[in-house]
Amino acid sequence: MDEVTEVRYYISSATDDAKTFNANIRKHWGIENKLHWTLDVIFDEDRQHKRTKSAAQNFSFIRKIALNLLKQDKSKGSLVTKRLKAGWDDKFLIHLLKI
After folding, report:
1. Which residues have C-beta within 8 Å of that of residue 50, sequence separation ≥ 6?
2. What are phi and psi of 76, to 5 degrees?
3. Residue 94 belongs to what H/E stretch?
4. Cβ 64 vs Cβ 39: under 8 Å
5. How far apart are CA 77 and CA 34, in angstroms?
6. By the 8 A CB rule, do 49 and 59 touch?
7. Distance (Å, rounded) from C-alpha 26 to C-alpha 19?
8. 3-class secondary structure, 86
9. pLDDT attached to residue 6
10. How many helices (H) and strands (E) does the chain have?
């Protein structure tokens, strides 16, 4: 296997050494990737095709709000189950919206 080197450029006011800066970049992308994975699993986001850019941005924003509400609920059940329950049970939906 050949060795591959990639170069990335960042603009930042950080004064960290390269190793610390790299660790912070990796943490940032880890959080981003986890959020994307969660949105895809819970809301099947990758299969959502909106016709306009503003619609895609608006729905993404709404899904993130919904995900945060689902995560704040302390009742038993997976996030997928809670999302489905919110669609079927108006009382549960109102409970989530009051969190």
Report:
1. 56, 59
2. -70, 155
3. helix 90-97
4. yes
5. 20
6. no
7. 11
8. helix
9. 86
10. 4, 0
* 27-78 confidence digits (pLDDT tens): 888 877 888 888 888 888 888 788 787 988 899 899 999 999 999 999 999 9
How far apart are alpha carbons 42 and 36 in whole angstroms? 10
Residue type for 20, please? T
Six token digits for residue 78: 């997976």
The secondary structure of residue 21, as a DSSP letter, is: H
| Rounded-to-integer distance, Cα 83 and Cα 40, Å | 13
Tokens 């709000």 -> residue: 65
- Which residues contact residue 38 at a Cβ distance below 8 angstroms, ignoring those fewer than 6 apart? 67, 79
Token output for 99: 């969190």
Q: Which pair of tokens denotes residue 3?
A: 């060795």
CB 51 within 8 A of CB 61: no
